[in-house]
Amino acid sequence: MRLPLLALLAKEPAHGYELKSLLEQTFGQAYPSPNIGQVYVTLQRLERDGLVRSQDVVQAARPNKRVYELTPTGRDALAAWVEEPSDGPRIRDDFFMKLALSPLTGATDQMALINRQRRHYLGLMRGLSRLAAGADRGNPISKLLIEGAMLHLQADLDWLERCQEELV
Amino acid sequence: MIGQARPLAAGQARPLAASAAGTALLRVAGLTKVFRGDGGAVHAVRGVDLSVARGEFVAVTGPSGSGKSTLLHLVGGLESPSSGEIWLGGKRVDGLSQARWAVLRRRQIGFVFQFFNLVSNMTVADNVELPALMSGATRRQARARREELLAELGLTSKAGAAPGRLSGGEQQRVALARALANRPSLLLADEPTGNLDSSNSGDVLRLLTRVHDQGQAILLVTHEARAACMADRVISLFDGMVVDDAVVFPPLPSSTTAASVLRLGGDHGAGRSSLDPC
């Protein structure tokens, strides 16, 4: 969560709860909702590494709140992150190991493995369809991430078909 | 003889499939289809058994060439099987003449295809009214049903348009309205989203789910998991045979997020999303 937090702080300083609700607003249900404890722990680590700094703001009749802002080093780290190309998701190698090694383990046949995996993917796809049709319909960022996940799942299913054609 | 079962002649066995077909809307047993051409025989469907209960939504999926479209064409009487049985609504239909099949398709089976197959020189309204008129409804009945369907599918404003002026998604919705015009007991859909973009596919799938929720039985052939996963049950075909027949269980709503799917077994160690604590 380090870099998303830096990105949210790029515009203006904010405190922990503001950052948590900004993350939720931006990503909807596409990501699991961040826990406030995780947000604070990450901010402390960012401060330790010199990427953000903080100061207490005194509030009348309420506890002080700690407001975070980017340091120049933080701004550089953010710029470097934005500029570098990102790795794509990799092949589902745990499943592939099971499939490739199943003639040796003799535990189950490859068709059964492929069928089980396909059922699992179809279930996930259905979960995503519900998500897409539900609360997140109006959130374009969330919609795009859900669509990305669906396209990846379709690719995984197409690849299962290839495994089936070659191995079974 | 009315209201009384005809006694079986001595030594005559009651056909086995008849009792099972009593509960299922559609039952297919030992179905095969061999195409014979210059290049020899192609065994497109090789001994398929399947059933669809009343109101059930079943998807058939598999790679291209696995026989899924042929299977759907057999079930809809567009091709005749080389062997095997097809039972629809408790009646054996695989041996029917083309004329009897045509009547059956008008009354009991709705069809949706990948390429819409609308009549291009008729309006949307006339396309949707046509099946009702052909099966003997009055003009008034046909119009009432058409108005109901177009409203249901969000197409009322397109009633007077020619199909060619509509987007692909709209044309497929018209095709769906036409397929449902005679309240078929079974809707057959052959790659209905195969020619649509992502957003129009989503619309058509939502409508299919809605008509299923209203009690419509659907047999859907698709290679798209996004479409298949909407069904109650997914049958996987491979090389003309059923290799899996499974109920789709979605994960618990709270446990699926797009992020959790994207990092599913991703790169080890780094198999976490950008929003995970670090």
Strand content of chain A: 5-15%
Helix content of chain A: 55-70%
Assembly state of the chains shown: heterodimer
How big is the Rg of chain A?
Answer: 22 Å
Element-by-element helix/strand order of chain B: HEEEHEEHEHHHEHEHEEH
Strand content of chain B: 15-25%
**Most extensive chain-chain interface:** A-B, 55 and 43 residues
Q: Report the mean per-residue pLDDT of chain A as an integer.
A: 87
Radius of gyration of chain B in whole Å, from Cα? 21 Å
**H/E series of chain A:** HEHHEEHHHH
> How would a crystallographer describe the biggest sheet of chain A?
3 strands, antiparallel
Find the count of extended strands of chain A (DSSP E, 2+ residues).
3
Order the strands across the largest sheet of chain B as they lie in space: 6-7-8-3-9-10
Classify the helix fraction of chain B into a percent range. 25-40%
Query: Terminal Cα separation of chain A, in Å?
Result: 42 Å
Number of helices of chain A: 7
